[in-house]
User: Fold this.
Amino acid sequence: MRTRRPRALQLVRYTIQTTVAAYVLVIVIANTTGERWAANLHTICPFGGVVNLYTYFVEGGYVAKLHAAVFVMLLALLVGLILTGKSFCGWICPLGSIQQGLGWIGRRLWPRAYNKLPRWLDGALQYLKWAVLVWVLVQTARTGRLIFQDWDPYFTLYHIWTDEIALTGYVVTAATVVISFFVPRPFCRYACPLGAFNGIFNSFSFIRIKRDAQTCTDCGRCTKVCPVNIDLCASTTIRSIECTRCLQCIEACPQNTRGCNTLGLHTWFSGLVPSGRSQGTDAPSPASAKPGRSKRVPTSAWVFAAIAIAAFVLPILITNLTGDFKIAGGGRGSGNGGGRQELIEPGLEGIEEGLDGAAMNVDYQQIRGSTTLGAMQFMGADIGDFLAEFDLPQDIPLSTRLRDLAEQYGLPLSEVRAYVDHAAR
Assistant:
C-alpha cells in the first residue's frame, strides 16, 4: 500500500506526541518508584480538573488522589480549547497518540480491513462518549473517588506493570488496542469523556477550519485523509466535535497549493480584511474575487501549531516557576488542596498538612501494593499494632510500601485489607 510521506508539519506533530507520551511515562515510573518530585497520573491529566469541579465548589475539597495541581492542568486545557479547539486531542494526548500509532500499523498490515466501519454505525457509536462523560461526572461527585480509573485505558497502559489495575481496565485496554488496528482512534471517538468535553469548543474556538465552497472542487481528498472520518465537503466551517485539529485535511487539499486557500485556518476576524489587502498566495482566485467581497486571510498552520502547544504548556510552565503548581497532598475535604495523601501515593510529603489528626474515611479495597505504612496510618490503622499483628519489626519506616513487605516477609495484601477494614470500624 503506497502512502504519502508526511509533510514537515505532521512530522512536528508526531514528534510532539511522542515526546509528551514519553514524558508522561517517565513521570509515572518515577511516581511508582517513590520519587517525591513526580506527580501521579491523575494530577497531570486535565480531566482530573473536570471531574473535580463539583467536589471543589460544593464541598470545598478534592476527589481522592487529586489536589490543586489539577486546576492548573484544567486552566492550560481551557486556554488551548478556547484558542484552537480540540487540538489537545490531536497534538498532546498520549492515549490518542498511542491509538494513532496502532492505526498506522494496522493500515499497513490490513489495508483492506482498516477503517471499514459502516458510517451509520460509526455515527451511532459516537454518542457513547457522552453517556460515559455523564456517568463519570455523576459517580465521581457522588463517591468522591476517581470512578473511571478502573476502566480507563490511559491509566492502565501507564500502570500495566503495577498491581493497581482492575480487571475492567485490562478488558477495556485490550479492546482498545485490538480495535485500534482496524478503526482510527476508537476510544477517542466512542468512549473518551474528555474527548466529548473538548469537542464542544470546536464550535466557537478562536481559530477554526473553514472551507471556501466557491473554490472547492469536491475532490474528497480532505475527507479521505481525515483520521476521524469527518465529511469536510459537507460544510463551510468544521465544527464537528470529532475534529482533533490535526490539520491533515488542510495539507491534503490540492486547491491550497494553487493559491485558493480553499481549506484553511481562520480566526474570528478573518473576514474583516478587504480583498485588495491580500498578497502573494493569499490572493483570491478568479472564482472567488467578486467586487465588494471581503477576503478571508488564513492563519498559518505553523502559527496554529505554535499557539496550540504554547496555550497548553505556558500555564503549566509559569505556575511551576512561580511555585503555584504543587503536586503534594490532596483528597476529599481538604480545602487547601494539600490535605490528604492519596492511598497509593508513595512517601508522606504533605500528608499532615490540614488533617487536624483526623483519620480518613476510605475504601479499604483501594489498598494496593504501592500503599505506604504512613498512608495506612491515616486510614485509621495503628501501625504499631499492625506490625505486631503480623510479626514485623517495629522500626520499619512509614514510607515503606506494602509490596516491599510482601516480598520480604510474605505479607498477604488480602489480610492487610481485612485488618484495615476492621481497624476503621
In short: The CA atoms of residues 55 and 367 lie 23 Å apart. The longest helix spans residues 8-32. The beta strands are 207-211, 263-267. The two ends are 64 Å apart (CA to CA).
